[in-house]
Structures are given as structure tokens and as C-alpha cells.
Design goal:
Elements lengths: L6 E4 L3 H12 L2 E6 L13 E7 L4 E5 L14 E4 L4 H12 L3 E8 L5 E6 L5 E6 L2
Length: 131
């Protein structure tokens, strides 16, 4: 059984965010507009539903009307051991682009490597691996 998939409600940036995550993680991206879903509660070109399927799964939509948009506090999206070390380092570096390197990906005293980054969309990622 797969784990939970984050589903983000974004302030008109769902296409941009999901494209960024596809460029970072790889995978297949599907985007569906409000017009395709016959929705009239937002701009026709807004994303009613989008999903990235691949090594990291993320779904998102553009919030309609006065729906709240994503604001994450006290949550880390953990990518611990989810890929080989070189891939995890690349993901960390790419997530830092336009974001904030909170704690550099580095070797810890106990031997593992980990670090934290808040990406440009406000999500905080914990990236790490064991040697």
C-alpha cells in the first residue's frame, strides 16, 4: 500500500509548482484545468487537479475563490533513503533553488547524511541517507 500523497491547494501556482517538482524528481505529470472539469468557480486555465506520479508523488490544484491555500508548519516531507545518495543530493540542491537551505545536507556524527530545505512553495523537505 502506498503512503499518503500530499495534495496542495495553491494560490494560482499549481501548474508552476507541479512542473517544478517533475523537473526535480522526474515522473509523469498530468494537469487538468477548470475548463476541462467544467468548473466555473475560477479561471478556465487554472488547475482543477494535477498530479505527479513517480519516485515522489505530489498532487495540487489552484484554490478556488476564498479557499485557503497551503501553509505548512511543523511538518517535514521526508525523503530519507528514498533514492541513492547522488540522486538525493541532486534533489536537495534542486529544492534549494529559489528556496531556503535550512540545514545543509551533510554527514552527521552518527554516520548518516541529512539536511533540510524549504522550497520556493513553502514545503519543508528532510532529505537523507545512510552510508
Amino acid at each position: 500500500m502506498p503512503g499518503p500523497t500530499p495534495y496542495l491547494q495553491l494560490p494560482g501556482t499549481a501548474r508552476e509548482a507541479l512542473t517544478f517538482y517533475r523537473d526535480v524528481f522526474g515522473g509523469e505529470l498530468a494537469l487538468f484545468t477548470y475548463a476541462q472539469f467544467n468548473r466555473e468557480d475560477g479561471p478556465a486555465e487554472a488547475i482543477a487537479h494535477g498530479e505527479l506520479r513517480g519516485p515522489v508523488a505530489v498532487s495540487a490544484s489552484d484554490a478556488a475563490g476564498d479557499e485557503p491555500t497551503v501553509r505548512v508548519e511543523g511538518v517535514l516531507f521526508a525523503l530519507l533513503g528514498t533514492a541513492d545518495p547522488a540522486t538525493l543530493q541532486t534533489w536537495f540542491d534542486r529544492l534549494c533553488e529559489g528556496g531556503t537551505d535550512v540545514d545543509p545536507l551533510q554527514q552527521r556524527p552518527w554516520g548518516a547524511h541529512d539536511g533540510q530545505v524549504t522550497d520556493r512553495y513553502g514545503l519543508r523537505w528532510l532529505v537523507g541517507y545512510e552510508d
